[in-house]
Amino acid sequence: MFAYLVRRVIGAIVLLFIVTAVTFSIFFLVPKLGGATSDDLASRYVGKSAGAEQIHETAVRLGFTDPLWVQYGRFMKGLFVGQDYNYGPAVEHCPAPCFGYSFLNQTPVWPDLVARMPVTLSLAVGAAVIWLVSGVGVGVVSALKRGSVMDRSLMSVALAGVSLPIFFTGLLALSIFSYGLGWTAQGGTNPMDASNPLEWAYDLILPWTTLAFLYAAAYARLTRAGMLETMNEDYVRTARAKGLRERNVIVQHGLRSALTPILTIFGLDLGLLLGGAILTETTFSLPGIGQYAVLALQSNDLPKVLGVTLVAAFFIVLANLVVDVLYAVVDPRVRIS
Predict the structure, then answer these.
(1) Residues 56 and 46: beta-carbon distance below 8 Å
(2) Total Cβ atoms within 10 A of residue 271
(3) Domains of the chain and CATH, by start
(4) DSSP code string of 303-321
(5) Taking CA 173 as the corner, what is the angle to CA 176 and CA 194, rounded to the nearest 5 degrees?
(6) pLDDT value at position 296?
(7) Is the pTM value of this prediction over 0.85?
(8) Buried-exposed string 287-309: b where 16+ CB fall within 10 A, e elsewhere
């Protein structure tokens, strides 16, 4: 078990290094392959009235004229010890971990991400709990009631949840439950400003439910398929023949065997959301990392977009590492291999 964990941790570290290299290349190498010059990259960090000579001086100060591997080494060094940016008017220090410096706002990217992280974390974790419990529960019930009216009804709802985009269900839910009935908080509230847990949950209950509806539908269909497959296995029939309670047969033998694919997609889904639930945060105007990325794209603020991309990649790799560890807990065959 220990050797298995060590291999997975080392693999995650190597993968993070590869992800940072590929992400950095996408932002700084691909534009040059498309014909952009170092001066073109530096032009977004100076005023609109800047001349060609001033733009070139800025490109030299920011290191855009250096070889790509030198720029990448400087960026990696900034993640651990910080970095100084000399863009002309002043030398700005970006403390570690330095994910970039926004010259449009004159602020480091990392403190902005940290300030917005609680909103994204609250949204992702809360919705994950709802969709995991409801999706798996609905899938189990549908599998046990296969072919019944309940099964068809639940799967029809699940199909609608998978098909409808979040910006449609979110706006529809806002118009009905917030602006129409007044049961939930309206968009644009910051749940982190709440004075107590109940107020915090009140501000997030509609985003939680709307986001969970999208994911719970997919989990219900996957759980149903897995349960239908495992409940017909020989070891399940053997457990029933031994006289085990039906509840124990379903949970310990049927559901546990069907959890492996669910763990896989759950890790990926949660990792993606922790990197910013862009559509949900934009629909409900939540000041999280997803909304931060949208605003950065609208203002063409490259360092912010790069920082969000790296944070999202980190959470995805971390989620996959946790899933690998859970594999060893759920399935003894993983530990043996």
Answers:
(1) no
(2) 22
(3) 2-98 (no CATH), 112-336 (1.10.3720.10)
(4) HHHHHHHHHHHHHHHHHHH
(5) 100
(6) 86
(7) no
(8) bbbbbbbbebeeeebbbbbbbbb
